[in-house]
DNA sequence: CTGTTAGCGCTTTCAA
DNA sequence: TTGAAAGCGCTAACAG
């Protein structure tokens, strides 16, 4: 940095301020310094920066399985755009989990915040994390609102009124309200939770078949689940979409391949929203405030859109 | 650290050495210091450590799409086991790519090495990366050897002799040799490259159908491709596995769902192998050596196994 | 085997 | 708006 300072004819302090966008530097100086730094291929050393400044500019991202790619991609993009590095922790098995929670003191020294994407934290794990003195934010179903609305509007427009909703296991019931807002009815016994697998989707159908009648549409949080629902319904002699329509909130290759109507970008949306909440918490902390949680606006236009395929049709 | 030193009745230097497993500390001292540190919930500050020591204990992991979850999980696990943090970079679109390659100077100051998982680097990108002065390792098909052998043995045992091999686009031909070693014949025109999508798999079949005859078995590097091959063959009236057997090297949910015989753990294996090569390079560098590349042994027993489903049968 | 002494490359008061 | 000086918390020589 002192090389850059010399080359630009200013002090290191000024270079530091200029490059970080800190106030207290004239626009002219900032521009010039930035240009010199770029020409010299100089970049601030994060180690030294965070050692001196306290902030680490890094966020730990927890995922259970290397997981849903788009979720991770959405979170990573939003974090990087905000200037944070993404430290990935894959908590795939009990060993990895245990090791991670053993080493929380180290975590606290590495990151400014923690983002739990798909880690299904146990209560004691959550408590341990909360003791780390950095904000912890987990993906919630709220982060999926736009996608759910889109799916709900679609099935409603097709004439469906009573639909089943299949959520991820860590989801809470509040999602149902979004369907209600869209003018749909949600029977309590038609709000179901499923593991994010084909088998999970099949089991969901078994439950539905036990009832007195079937819904005419099913909204599934995941592509695998949607496929499971699809396969199981067909095996039972039901026609899709003749008897039952299926929408997936997970527009991956799987939905595309099998021809399932899906909301594209839903997972990315979840990631981005969660990051928004985390950034708000970080901002709050650095302002000395206490804004844990807090509403956030992705700023960006919602990146979700519905792709209609062969799994949905009029009631 | 000085607190711990005081509490343990030693100097900070000794604490540092003890906690990092550096030589030059008696076992007794090390044990005691470690225990004191743990009790005080102390962890070394990475910033300060790497500022003073030069090593960053972090690796940048590049992925195109948040990608194949198991690949990432395998790499992350192996890196963390070796004491490295994983800095995730998702190069999902041109914007993200451009931003990443704009900022290479910053990368060089953050990590000790780069691991490209599924980023399909263009030549100029690869060159730019190589200019970064840290080892760069990309996942190669070599990292898939055990999986390929397993798949080859399976189809051979079923009586197949001439098989088609569908590789990822960035793969090289050497994989074919593994099939030959297994006693299979590999016609040049039956070694094919495909994008990792269902559509890619379908196109592959189109190419095969143009030939004078079909192979009796197809080994596919990816689950989506395998599904594409499967769907396209069926559409053409071929029976799977009656006419053609299909094996996927990607034992994900997709293969499970559709009933495709697959090698489970192959992606994890790839990740672990690539990390092995990167660690070797890092070790080489820190020893002052020049061992770029270099053979590595995962040490661990191979984590791959074949799961036979309905897509393979006797010739 | 252990302690002492210099920094590593920044950021941040505090003055100017 | 800018600069000078004092660390941030550790590691690596060098002594002992």
Automatic annotation (TrEMBL), chains A, B:
> What Gene Ontology molecular function terms does this protein carry?
DNA-binding transcription factor activity; transcription cis-regulatory region binding
Q: Where is the HTH lacI-type domain?
A: 1-53
* Biased composition annotated in UniProt, kind: Basic and acidic residues: 285-298
* Pfam families registered for this protein in UniProt: LacI, Peripla_BP_3
The record ties this protein, via SMART domains, to: HTH_LACI
- Keyword Transcription applies: yes
InterPro entries tied to this protein: HTH_LacI, LacI/GalR-like_sensor, Lambda_DNA-bd_dom_sf, Peripla_BP_I
Known Gene3D superfamilies for this protein? 3.40.50.2300, lambda repressor-like DNA-binding domains (1.10.260.40)
The answer, when asked if Chloroplast is one of the entry's keywords, is: no
Q: Where is this region: Disordered?
A: 285-315
Q: Which PANTHER family match?
A: HTH-TYPE TRANSCRIPTIONAL REGULATOR GALS, LACI-RELATED TRANSCRIPTIONAL REPRESSOR
Kindly provide the name given to this protein in its UniProt entry.
LacI family transcriptional regulator
